[in-house]
User: Fold these one by one.
Assistant:
Number 1:
Amino acid sequence: MDSKTEKALKINEITKGRICDHCLGRKFSKELEGPGNPLRGEKIRNLLRESDKIVDIDAPCYVCQDLFQEIDDKLIQAIIEKIKDLNLEFSSFVVGCKLPLEIIDRDEKLNQNLEVVVEGIKKEVNREIGKLLEKHLKQEVDFDDPQIVIMVNFKRKKPSFKIQINPLFLEGRYLKLVRGIPQTKWPCRKCKGRGCEQCGFTGKMYNESVEELISPAVLEKTQGTGSKFHGAGREDIDVKMLGKGRPFVIEIKEPRKRNLNLKNLSQEINKRCQGKVKVLQLKYAKKFRKAQIKTTSSTTSKTYQARVKLNKAISEDKLKNLQKLTLIKQRTPLRVSHRRADKFRFREVKNIKAGMISSDELELIIKTEGGLYIKELISGDKGRTIPNVSEVLGTPARCVELDVLEVGDQD
Ligand SMILES: [Zn+2]
Ligand SMILES: [Zn+2]
């Protein structure tokens, strides 16, 4: 007797002949050609008939209780209808399922008994539903980057399903052309966003933010249920973001529309931002960019323009002392120490250009490694940043105006 027949007989014995073609074929997926488990199952069944062991196909399957018969036209039609109702735009999908635990259990136990390692029943269920949907949707299942997930639940008597809409990511660069706007929505410190007298029942510390200026137009066009703004670092509220802008990713939750005219969308955003904020180079992004722009932000170089007020007048030749500012040891500034870990960091100043505005006022163009706090580089932050501008000029210095001119390199 060959090994296939031997295995088939063992299955026949364990299941008392109650096994469907799907579940039977699945156990032979490594040694028999398909295509598909049902065909494999049929071949094995014929093998058993030859050896006078008839497999009873009328009783419900020992493994799946004939679950595969529930994957029918009715289910597929209902899914298609639902997608139509939601008016969804998507170009990739994947199928997931929930199965009763005892089915998964029996499937695995059978594998253990037979000492085989083959795919689990869940994978086959997903694939079978996927194949049928592919025909209707005229799209192939995409495991890597599905825009929607069709989740079918077989745990109850009748299968039910949910359409999960994965987020859409757009990225671009933003300019902040006025001071006094935070990057993201900032909940009121006192009421934590619930709304109180202090915040005028807005629940916010600031009326608007870069996020809140950009998001509404995006949400409208995509018909999403919410959004999240991820910046490549952030400038202080009183700092402008100029030059080529700061990279950001906007994540739109449950978007129904994905086929966007990004040029029109940028125009619409910029119209609504009324010159306070401007969006450049808006494009589609993959999910990984959300984390990537955050991590690269601390390593990419930045260029700042600072207006600096000095306690006493200095002569212009003192400015050359600024070239001593190369490697900076900076302890977490007092200003942010309540929300950031207290630690030392070393950051490189790549270049400083200085000009006198008057005898006690300077303009500095500072190019540095990411992650250096500029206001403290100027003041010295009570000795927490060394060396610093105050120290090398020999008089206390204070940043009165700061703009970011460049973040990272242009791609
Ligand atoms: Zn079965
Ligand atoms: Zn409040």
Note: The radius of gyration is 32 Å.
Number 2:
Amino acid sequence: MPTRREFLTRTAAATAATYALLQPDSLRRVRAAGRNLAGESPRSLADNEGYWGQIQRAFAVDRSLINLNNGGVNPSPRMVQDAMRRHVEYSNQIPSRNLWQQQEPQVETVRARIARMFGCDAEEIAITRNASESMEISLYGLTLSPGDEVLTTTQDYPRMINTLKQREQREGIVLKTFPFPNPPQSPDELVEAFERNITPRTKAVLMSHMTTYTGQVFPVREICHAARAKGITAIVDGAHAFGHFVYDGGGIGCDFYGTSLHKWMHAPIGTGFLYVRKDRIAGHWPLMAAPEPKTNDIRKFEEIGTHPAANRLAIADALVFHEGIGPERKEARLRYLRDRFAKRLAANDRVRFFTSLDPQQSCGMATLGIEGIGAGDLRTHLWKQHKIYVTGIEFENISGIRVSPNVYTTPTEVDIFTEAIEDVLKNGIPVETKG
Ligand SMILES: Cc1ncc(COP(=O)(O)O)c(C=O)c1O
């Protein structure tokens, strides 16, 4: 007969074991790996392969391929995919009840968690399907008159530029864009360029927090501050920034901030959010008509008809996974992986970097080209010959490949990519693997 003490000890151990078994495996790995390393700085942990090996195993990606286009869209860890599947199954039991009455109200907890991570009030967050939707709500919903100017860079995302071009054609607003060098000398150069191009007719400025072509980080706080001081609406496209590097969203001081959550946050594909500064909600038109378009309720931007709750609810699991790693650790690891290939290849004077490697101006992505080799050929060769997936960029003076590893990428995979580029530098691209 066990003593009372033995009984309690055994029960506690069994409960802990059961709890561990019930936790999604990937989260258990992440937490367990992190627990013993609590005292280590994010930078010193950036090349601790024992730790990152646990994170890598949280993803069920195909390791016979090397995906270095994580800037496009990210895979979700297993725990996020599992959560999504559970929610889909539950919705489908009796959708009109489970989806509308149970799951949709539950999305409010996700709103609150996103707000907490971004650094704002939950009543300032609309959950959307992606950055595009968030940005279109921002850009179409502004009240503008013919002749009013919206200022952005030529390197902002094409869909946002097209949104403004459509407003030009339809309503006679004026889209003004300016180019900037790749890379710029310093972040100040970008603030000055915005300030120089503002005119008395400028009503809004649009900027990418991190650009699509080169991953250039913009000093959004300074630009928003300069714009708002002149009464100009400040809109930030944060598609690549949220979940990638650490910043205080509320502290940026913008009026609108849109992002996807299926990029660097690892949430299910088809998720994003839009932050709208509280005092801008009532005056802003929703993209799809809401019963009260001028209400102060942020949910008016979510009036899109029947839509799944599963991917929205599973955002919470992605946030938990991200917090489990620690945003600072993740940022440090992304920088480490990027620098691992970038610093080695930058030593070759035939390799041109369109991305500054200055930590203030970039993070986990870099766009690079090889003198005398077309971006399309390089991209196709990497895929055909090595099954390495990158995206090709041809825009203005940029001709290269954008390379974006992620937390599940191993240093060996980064080295295989680096060696493949070194081989091209030495031997060129055989005709069979050209684009
Ligand atoms: C800067 C920027 N904004 C917006 C988007 C659009 O993102 P999504 O397709 O998730 O809406 C992208 C996509 O790569 C992007 O790079």
Note: The first strand starts at residue 66 and ends at 67.
Number 3:
Amino acid sequence: MIEKACLKCKRIVTGKQCPICKTSKLSTKWKGFVIILDAKNSEIAKEMSLTEGKYALKVK
Ligand SMILES: [Zn+2]
């Protein structure tokens, strides 16, 4: 299964649409990722305003 990253929120998705932004603007050119398990207690999540999930660090 190809994992794509949302161009807007950088979330990594396997479908055709980002479940957060509802956009289909996804990129296969991404590098590195972070997994947010507990958004409420994560400094990274707060800083980047993310919810639980997997996010790409760099998206082209
Ligand atoms: Zn998104």
Note: The mean pLDDT is 93.
Number 4:
Amino acid sequence: MQNDKSKFKINRKFKKNVLLRDYTTFKIGGPAKYFFEAKTEEDLIEAIKFVYQKKLPFFVLGGGSNILFSNEGFEGMIIRCQISNIKCQNSKIYTEAGVKLSDLVKLSSDKGLSGLEWVAGIPGTVGGAIWGNAGAFGKSIADIIKEVKIFNAKELRIKNYELRDCKFGYRESIFKKNKNLIILSCLLELKKGKRKEIRKKIKKNIDYRIKNHPLNFSSAGCVFKNYESRIRNQGLMKKFSELKEFNKKREIPAAWLIEKCGLKGRKIGGAQVSEKHANFIVNLRKASSNDIIKLINLVKKKVKEKFDIKLEKEIQII
Ligand SMILES: Cc1cc2nc3c(=O)[nH]c(=O)nc-3n(C[C@H](O)[C@H](O)[C@H](O)COP(=O)(O)OP(=O)(O)OC[C@H]3O[C@@H](n4cnc5c(N)ncnc54)[C@H](O)[C@@H]3O)c2cc1C
């Protein structure tokens, strides 16, 4: 690629052998062969066209807060989405994909707009949140999306997706299923509210996270999705009284399942199932990607054995 006379300007802008651990909240990940930071929509589209033309493996990175990169690194181009225009009009916010969720929450509270309070304390970017339909406290990004602008890398064209086109579900979206859809920006519809009330809710949510999440360690948030069904096994129902309530809501928290398997605090290498919140795996000290993967597999095995439940990962392993 060094001698390539491509018309693409990004040839002059990408870096080589960039350590991915510096770009993820897990602080794990070997070198990316090529690394490009897209600061404008034009840059991002150009980079995508470039990798498609060169048939290079690629990965669009947001804030790196939902990802485990391998210590082996990535044999292709990491395109870090840093496009970050944001503006507010009446009760709508237009935001590009690389805007940090913390900046989005700040703007909405400054403008007295309600609907994003649950986002406070979630690291990462708007693009990553749309990709995985991020959510907390019973809300998700799908609740406030009006439109998502995407670049379809296969068809080489920009398109607007309305809410229903995004096929959002619990930590699901069409973007998760179709790698050709690159999120450029979106339009959010919020509600006018009282600044003081909004700030109070934000503080409450952040306090909850400080109290319940292992924020003093590197992690990628919750590792597994909650189990969205019921447990009918009578033996388990008798043993665990909480199951009655969970069954009513048709949602069994992954953290509860993991804790009941006695896995809180379990370590492999430098990785540990958090002692504070069992659905977090933390990088205690220089954990490798393999340490984390082994711990994930152990958790899955134990939960399957005890509850006959197949836990699904929320984080992505690359
Ligand atoms: C302490 C902590 C707490 C967390 N709490 C929560 C929580 O309460 N709720 C929750 O849902 N999540 C939570 N997370 C996980 C994570 O922060 C969110 O899922 C966040 O939205 C991910 O955004 P990101 O930009 O970091 O995505 P990344 O990790 O960078 O990427 C995630 C995926 O999105 C894709 N992607 C990113 N940008 C684009 C784009 N422009 N176009 C196409 N694809 C794109 C990537 O390719 C990747 O597949 C938490 C994480 C941590 C570390």
Note: The pocket of flavin-adenine dinucleotide is lined by residues 25, 59-67, 81, 97, 122-125, 127-129, 131-132, 134-136, 175, 182-183, 213, 215, 219-221, 316 (CB under 6 Å).
